[in-house]
Amino acid sequence: MGLRTEDSRKLWMMLPIFYFSGIAESLNYTAFMALFNLRFGVQFLPYIYIVEAAIMPLEGWLLAKLANRLPKAKMMTTLYLIMIGLLFLNGAVLLGFKLGGVDYRFYYPILFLTSNFVVRQLTLLLWSTAFDLCPTQQAKRLMPMFIASTTTGGITAGLIAHQLGKLLGTEAVYAMAPVLMVFGFIFFRKALMRYLVPLTLKEDKRLKTQSVPLAQEEKPQAAGYYAKQMLRNPFLLCAVALMTLMPAVYFMMEYQYFTAAEFKFPQEGDLTSFYGLITAIQFTVCLLFQTVSTRLMNWLGASNILLGITILFFGGFGLTALFMNQELGLVMVSGSYAIFYILLYYIAEPCYQLFFKMMPISKRDGYRYFAQGVAASGGILIGSLLSMLHSFGLLQLSPLAWLGVVVAAILVVVAWFGRNLYIRELVKSVQSLHGDLSEIASSFIGGIRSSKALSAILGYLKHPNDYVRELALEIIGKAKDSAFLPHLISMIGEESSRIRIAVLRAMNLQGAGIQELVQVASFLEDEDPEVRAECVKLISKASHLKSQSHFFIRVKLLDSHPKVVHEGVKALYALESEESYPACDEAIIKMLDTGGEWAVYGCHTVADLKLDTYAAWVVSLLDEKRPAVKVAAAHCIGKLQHVEAIPILLGMVPKADQELRKVILQALVDMGQGALPTLREHSHHSNPFIWNAVVSTLAELLEDGQLRTMLVDLCVERLQASTQERALPAALEELGLQGLAELAKERCGELHRALIDGAWAVMAKLVDERIIMTLREAIQDESEELRENGLEVLAEGLGDRKLAYALLDQFKLKDTDAGAVELQPFELLQEAASWADNWLKDIAIYALSALERDDMKEERKFLTMLDKVIFLKQVSLFADLSVDELGLIAGIATEEVHEDLTYLLRRGEANTAMYLIIEGHVELSNETGVGETATIGVLGAKQAVGETTALDGSPSSVTAQAIFDEVRVLSLQGESLSRLVRLYPEIGIGMLHASSARVRLLENMLLKMS
């Protein structure tokens, strides 16, 4: 079924909720309908639906009010308990009537309204719970299981009602519903406490502390706005008409079903038994349909599904009208009702959501709720008013069925027009929603070839808007129809490279001739390497013209861009051109040997083709100076599952930057089960960062049972082990080395966080990654109340009680003193000089050397690596980086000394470096409009100059000159600086602030001069 470990845990906790609630909902519905129809009168069903339509807006308003006043988990629990209470109260009244031998006819409308409220809200509550507790991708995997559980509950309820209705009466059937809801509530509450409460900690705090309503950033549009917009939009009008008429037809059929069944079974027990039988059959069909529904949706698409549903509605009413007055009348109307129910509530309702996907996201919910409100009330009213023609005695059931046929025919016409209007609306929305529209189009149109829809798309290939053309090409590409190839070949001369790439992606060369292949191959000489690479990928798919494709592709092994060569090698392997394998080997060797970007693509080629023979060469690239090559090599080693390189990868972790660490972790995971023995050997590694990488990888690879037996105790043991490292900052402070103490404290915090992160990685696999992420944010929040709430969730034994308590102890120790230093400060420094962590060891050695010399600065002309780290930590741009990250920057920073009056930057000249001032002063100046030079400002120690132009090598807008005396600086080259900004966005933000301050200085200077 494609389920994962975390899916299974959640599934077994939530399946009973859906199962017991499914039984309770169906028993409730079956019983109250039988009681109302026989004891009050089925002819009054349209009236009660009209009353219900009037009550529904008030119901929604009250529930919205309740949701705004209660935390989410409490709101959901309260609503569930309210529904149980209503069912218990009604059950007690009904049993009282039966035991007392009394009856009160006008109680049954109240029974209908309250019981139908439970049916309606219980369904919404269950599905909202499922979506709230499951991330989007997990919800996609688990929803079929939840639906199957609910439908199985419906089958069970039908069988119970069929037997119990005859034996004990309808009251007993109704009374069983709240009992079963109580069983569901036990699992419901447990699931909320485990999965939802941690996710809503911040929202719960807001509700508790909120004394006045929060000011809304954007006022919601009034209902009149959406009404006007919908009246102007034919597509939305069709959508609302479809959403209104479909339930109207359903309610007409429901009235036919209940009326015919009451006429056939005048005895209450027999009627309840019949309802139960139909319910069992109905949900059995629904369960069977779920096995093919996903594939059917992907094949047909939502538009064709909705059209098909309307045709089935038309056919169902037609059969009902034809056989209503015959022996098969009840069979036809019961079967049609059962099918209508499944199609409306389990198929059509999800398809409706695609109507609103094209609306701007800020207004999407407004359109959705307004349309659904109009459709819900309108559908009930139309169905009820038409059914009242029979209640008033104006029409018999058979003519009423023919009227249903007419309404269903109108429904088919509306669905057909809505389907054809969809493409036009899709294109209209393209500019604001381009990123999502191809998937929306695929979901709506489906995988089948709709020649009319796709022919209409061809008209948009010449649209002036590139986004529209790109979307049209994506939709054509999804059809995989070679009939469009001539139209696409005609677009070879497009100016935009993005469109040329989209054209290639839309092409299907299956069945193409040699002449067409030659025309497509003209893209191989395109000036843009991305286009050439895409053309190589396309030609490789023309397997029926293997020799010709091989000829065109082999030439591209000599291309000037590594990406084209990369695609060329992959294409020749895809075509199984064995005669070209030696040439491919030469191309791969050239890429790996050239280095830089070529080596990066070489690693990708080896990884994609799983060429194990190059494993040793790729491992050697881990020593490359260029970070991008290291990243590509680590990724490749993971894809090759070269487990012999695991110790090397783990050894790189402590000194790796964020990107490389992430890739190494993924590489270890990619190695799969074969990596487990080696990882187990390193599971007690003394370095916290290596231990973190090992534990995080094992958490990904091990099954649930192995997680608990192997990793939980390992994490608890490591967290509880006392370390002397935390005493080092206090010892340094006592010796008066404040700068080193701060650096040591930062490093100790990093080591501790690495251990905590490893434990959280295990916990995430025992619970849910979203929950752990939210819980970690709450525990680190500035609000003391929110932190306490997060710790309280941890104290409940989340995931695993032992691990939760070990983490809890760590967070409680965080706010306490690190403890007294057992050794004397100088003795501790001597011991620290031999510790495993390189940074703490260097800090200790540095401190000992400082204590041995009176004036360390005079004896050391240039900064050591640790000097640079201490200095960088004091520069605002780098203040938030870790010690390891500061070490990476220090490693690429060059110390320079510039004499007095030396120019670091000149206005109008290209600049390729950023300078961080260690000592001295730098004057910033600019030329005025009259040719004079004016000072903008003077920069001193720990300030930066040239940070903006260094990123792109652009000409400097100011002149920077050393003044008063020599200036010592750290120089960072532009290429290295660009990578830093990409990896650490906070550096870019700091540079932006510095640049803004510089602009303000310039503005002030100009104002003074004017």
UniProtKB/TrEMBL annotation:
PROSITE patterns with a match to the protein in the record: CNMP_BINDING_3
Domain Cyclic nucleotide-binding: 877-981
Pfam families linked: cNMP_binding, HEAT_2
Coiled-coil region(s): none
Domain of life: Bacteria
UniProt entry keywords in alphabetical sequence: Activator, Membrane, Transmembrane, Transmembrane helix
Cross-referenced PANTHER family: DEOXYHYPUSINE HYDROXYLASE, PBS LYASE HEAT-LIKE PROTEIN
Molecular function per GO: oxidoreductase activity
Signal peptide stretch: none
Membrane-spanning segments: 12-35, 47-67, 79-100, 106-130, 142-161, 173-192, 235-253, 273-292, 304-324, 330-348, 369-388, 400-418
Cited Gene3D superfamilies: Jelly Rolls (2.60.120.10), Leucine-rich Repeat Variant (1.25.10.10), MFS general substrate transporter like domains (1.20.1250.20)
Keyword Membrane annotated: yes
Organism, scientific name: Paenibacillus pectinilyticus
Protein name per the record: Cyclic nucleotide-binding domain-containing protein
Record flagged with keyword Membrane: yes
